[in-house]
Structure formats: C-alpha cells, structure tokens
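PROTOCOL LOG
Step 1. Enter all chains and additional molecules of the complex.
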Amino acid sequence: MSHNLLDLAVAAKDFQALRVIKNVRFGINAGEVVSLVGPSGCGKSTLLRIIGGLDTSYSGKVCIKGEPPHLHSREVGLIFQEPRLLPWLMVAENVAFELGRKGRHHPYVTQLLAEVGLSDFATAYPKQLSGGMAQRAAIARGLFTQPSLLLLDEPFSAVDAFTRRRLQDLLLSVAGHHGTTLLLVTHDVSEAVYLSDRVIVLADRPGRISGQVIVGEARPRDRRNPQLIRREAEVLTLLNDGTNAFFDLSYDLASAPTPWQAARLSSLNFAI
Amino acid sequence: MSEVSIPASTAVVASSRFEFKALIRRVQGLLVPAVLVIIWETVVRAGWVSQHLLPPPSELVTTLADLAGNGTLLGHIGISSLRVLIGFFIGAGLAVVVGAAVGLSRRTEALLDPTFQALRAIPSLAWVPLLLLWLGIDEAPKITLIAIGAFFPVYLNFVAGIQNVERKLVEVGGIYGLTGYRLIARIFLPAALPNLFTGLRSGLSLSWMFLVAAELIAASSGLGYLLTDGRETGRADLVIVAIIVLALLGKTSDSLLLWLEVRLLGWRDVFDTRPS
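Step 2. Run joint prediction.
Step 3. Record the structure below.
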C-alpha cells in the first residue's frame, strides 16, 4: 500500500442496528497534524477508539505502520477529553504509569514535566492540580511512551478559553519537538484550523467524510490570520452539507407557540 | 525601619491567644463528658441515686486502680484484644479475597453473592448456640463469631468499591496493556481502597461487639467475662469499668485504622471538615 503512518478504511461500524460509520477512508503521513470535525454522533470518537485499539468490532482495514491497531501499542498514544489521571498516583507516577511505581524517577519524566511546565508538581496528587494543569500532565503521560501517533479526543473542550489557547500552543510545540503525528477530534472549528495541516470534515447518519480542507499556513500561526478564517469558513460550509447558508431557525421559531403575547405599544401609557 | 516594626508585646499576645484557641479546640470534646462526670458524682453523693446501682466516678477510679494494680485488668484486656485481633484478621482477610472474586467477576458474583446475602441476614447471636455445639467452649467459637462479624461489612463495602470503579480509569489501565492481576493490583485495588477502609472500620467495631457477645455467654477471662462477673457478684462498678475499658479499646483501635486511612488515602479529593 502507501507509506502512510496511518491507513484507515472502515467500511462499516454498527452499534446494534444503527450504522454509525460508512465507508470512511483516509491516511495520515508521519509528522502531520490532522483534525476530525463533525456533528456529534458522526462517529469521530469511534474512529479514534478504533485506531487506538479500544474498539475492534468493525469491518474494514486499519493499519498503523503496516500493523493492525491493538491495545498497548508502542506506536499510539491516547489523550481523552478529561485528563483521566489516576487520583492515587502522584503526577510523576501518572506520567510514568507505563513503568509502574518505580518509574517516577525516570529522567524522561523530569524532561516531559519541564516541557509541559509542571516541574514543581512532580510529587503533587491530581486533586491539587487545576483542570488545565491536569490536562498538561495527561499530555506528558501520552508522550511518555514516545508514540509515533498521538490521538486526542476533544482534549481541550473541558477547559476555559484562555487555558485552551495556551494548551493548543503547548501541544504543537511539544509534539513538534518530539516529531509526533497528531490526530485530533474536536468540535471547535477554529481550533481544528489553527492546529492542523488538514481538517477532515465528517457528516452524520451514517458517519462519512463530507470533505477535507487543507490549511497550508506555516507555523507558528497568527490566530488573526485571514487565511485561517477563510479556511474556517470552508470547514463550516462542509459542515452545512455543502451549502453556504446559515442554519435557518426562523421557520421553527415562527411555528413555535409564543410564550408571551407581544403588547401593542399604542395600548401602553408611559409615565416618565 | 523603626516606624514599621510591630511592638513585640502585641505579637506575643496574638500568638498566645492563637495557642489558647488551638487548645480550646483540642479539649472541647472533653467538655460534655467532664460536666456529666461532675453531675454524676454530685447526684450519687447527694444520695439521690443508690450507690449500689450507680457507683460514683471516684469509686470507679478506685476499682480501676485495684484491677490494674493486681494485673487482672491487663490480663482481661490482653485476652480480649487478642481474640478481636485474630478474629478480625481472619474475617477481614477472607472478605477481601472473596470480595475481590465477587467484585471482579460477574460469574462468581452470580454464584456466591446470593448465598452471602442470605448468610448476612442471620442475626449474629443466632450463630452462638451452633458454634458452641460445633466448636466447644474454647477459643474457636469466639474467634469464629468475631470473624463472622468482621466478614460482612468488609465484604459488602469492598465488593461495592470494586464494582464502582470508574470505567474511564479501567480503560486507562487497558491502554497501558494491563490485564488480569496487574489490572487488579494497579487499578481496581487502589480505586476500591476508600471503600475497603470504610468496611474495615465498621468490621472492626462489629468485632468488638461480637467479642462481648461471645464472652458474655461462655468465657472465663476477658472483658465480657468481667461484665458477667460484675453482674453475678452484684458489683456495678466492675460492669461500668469493663464498659469504659471496652469503649476505650474500641476507640483506640478505630483511631489506629483512621490513622492508617489518612496516611494511605491522602490522595482522595474529598471535602475536608477537619480543622487545618
């Protein structure tokens, strides 16, 4: 086949009688940053779980460096929407979870914690961290196994907007430094465009690819760059099934019963 | 420099006031018992209550000193504590093993849990005649009864703890290739540890309860025997002293477990009501 790091061809994936994914194919080259966006229920998280080896009941063929996905793959790391740190382990022990308890003194732990700005929190417990700090620790844990491909499932959706931007930049710099390929699932179109080389847009019922937007801008990028905003518009167009129209809610609103009756201004007396 | 320095005396007053407050906080739990003891002593001394039925605290102190002086009290405490210790370890140990098996496997749960739920419904004292018939009146029935008492709280809490481990954390273990006993040791056991401690603490207090039940019925030594002895010889002071010693022992052993719990479970993100 090709020389992609990841080759994915999922012909079908069903949850009971419901077909959630139909004929999704894409590949990712080493070093790329790719986002999957789409309405909820379009199967993007399921795709990530398939690649991560968490979900094995599908028909199709998925290859990571020529191997089918499996749990505990050296090639793949996973970061979830929530940090999922083990609360009974210190931050350093969480990062080095792969090595067991003795792993917290591994030199690579120190290096990763420094890269994500948590050097002072190596011996802290997760309860002592803020949401953003916990997610940084999760990123360090995801990178500890030195995976070629890091999968991120809406990694920044649970943190505030300022923290999110800082975490995005941190992710790009750390992944760039380690040469890690990123595949990211997100709801946030501007996040997808800002981070990615390519944005793959999925449609729902059943989940399928509706198009792809290539973001050719060099990094570091300026969030105000009009080119990025243009790409965002393209992604939004694809999300709206190829039309440039906004979602039109006026009909629904007009048909809905009005909770209050509009008063005729002429009938009111004002004393000012 | 001299303008901004605080007069030394103020600082000293502030710190001593602070220490006084800390002292108050520490001894405030003793306030109610102290008042009760004073009222008790006064009521008995005034002759409102028969000294024979309710000996005053001062007399209890004498009884306690006598018992402690000739070494009998220490003997009773020793034998009772040993019984609780052995029974508790056997019961809690079995509960951890069976609880792990039931909590981790649906099949084992379907097989064993109904039986244990039925056994749990048997009132503790109903076991006594049977145990006496089977095991004689030696140590064996007492320790068995205590083990039964310790078993159920530990079992129930541990099973609940294991079954309530978050799927998301188990998934993390799976991603790191943990299966079988390694998944149990690194995810399930630590996650279920808070529940296990809840079970251990209530199991221990039930152990003391069952100890008294066992010793009241058939024993020639131990604190339960002291209770029976006091009743048979009409000495309320002996009974009350035994009750007080049992309370102290129960509280001490629970504090030991609490200390261990605080040490082992410091990672828990819980609302802390204790003063810092």
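Step 4. Note key features.
Chain B has a mean pLDDT of 87.
Residues 180 and 259 of chain B are 31 Å apart (CA to CA).
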